[in-house]
Amino acid sequence: MSDLTITRVEAIPYRIPYRKPLKFASGEVVHADHVLVRVRTAGGLTGCADAPPRPFTYGETQRGIVAVIEDVFAEQTIGLDATERSRLHARLHRTVGNPAAKSAVDMAVWDVLGQAFGQPVTRLLGGYTDRMRVSHMLGFDTPTAMAHEACAMRDRYGITTFKIKVGRRPVELDVEVVRALRNTLGDKVELYIDGNRGWTASESARALRQLADVGLTLAEELNPADDVLGRRWLVEQCGVPFVADESATTPAEATRELLGGSATALSIKTARTGFTVSDEIRSLAEGLGVEVVMGNQIDGQLGTACTVAFGAAHRSTSARAGELSNFLDMSDDLLTEPLRIVGGELIAPTSPGIGVTVDMDKLAHYRIDS
Ligand code: MUC
Ligand code: MG
């Protein structure tokens, strides 16, 4: 047994309310009902990562994540050396599905490795830059309320890129929101839309036609990828990169969506592909020559620290603004030191590992298993 032998894997469910729930076409998040995953080693290191259940996207629930980690992944992980990442990956992927649970175990092990080598994981992953520009995701509300939130984010944090949730009916409801945002914020900000599969192909095409003069930069999952021909038809006429998010959660899915003409860009979310598989998807995107966006799975600060650590590690993943700000909607968080967005940017943590510390008092307060 070496100092880096993994001796324990814990899955701790906790609940932190949102000050402002996030609503979108496929669901709504009112509480952060997440699972903190902790990996301990023989030498006394502890790695942490966060698993946010998204039943409406992947079918995982908070109790399901705890169960699969306790019943399956812990046994497969304990006894491995933290450097045996590829072996860990092979073991975890014997189980189908469960993307957030697998990802949290993967990233907690990377956290251990960073601490062991005295390096921030962003350096181990690639070390391209130290920061990312931030994109803020605007959930469903009235045009006035969404424009007000965007102005507040710009004025307080310097954020100038916004992802607008769309996918409501009739499409004119969302078209009005996008126009209100452009009119209020002016031409200097970047706007793009994410439908979470809410529209049909023809509704999406109608909305894109109505928004042709607004200058959107991306369109994400406007209709379901399972509407195979409708989706291809839509992507062919979409004048901007069409981002596959929940339809491309593995390298194989991403390949199928891109080669099948159902997408022309990819969203990478460390919450669902960890660091290891996110890097496979990044390489795939670079090889095929498509753009990527670092997406948000409605992450708290620990999840956001993982996203910026990975995003800043490579040129392709840091080229566009990353979705790194929705932790601001939570009423509290688990970290000892909050992440700070300044001048529209977030710097990747510089301490060894993922580079953030969980506050034990906060965890004791918010955990729901004791
Ligand atoms: C997104 O990009 O779709 C909504 C659900 C989820 O899992 O992530 C968010 C954001
Ligand atoms: Mg999305």
Account of the protein in words:
By secondary structure, the chain is an alpha/beta fold. The chain has two domains: 6-118, Enolase-like, N-terminal domain (Enolase-like, domain 1); 123-347, TIM Barrel. Helices cover 41% and strands 21% of the residues. The chain is built from 15 helices and twelve strands. The chain has helices at 55-58, 62-77, 85-92, 99-117, 121-125, 143-157, 171-185, 201-210, 228-237, 251-259, 270-273, 276-288, 301-311, 315-318, 360-366, and strands at 6-24, 27-41, 46-51, 131-138, 161-165, 190-194, 219-220, 242-244, 265-268, 291-294, 322-323, 345-347. The strands form two sheets. Strands 4, 5, 6, 7, 8, 9, 10, 11 and 12 form a nine-stranded mixed beta sheet that branches. α6 runs parallel beside α7 (171-185) and α7 (171-185) runs parallel beside α8. It is globular, with a radius of gyration of 20 Å. The model has no long low-confidence stretch (mean pLDDT 98). The site of magnesium ion has 6 residues, from loops. The site of [(2S)-5-oxo-2,5-dihydrofuran-2-yl]acetic acid has 10 residues, from loops.
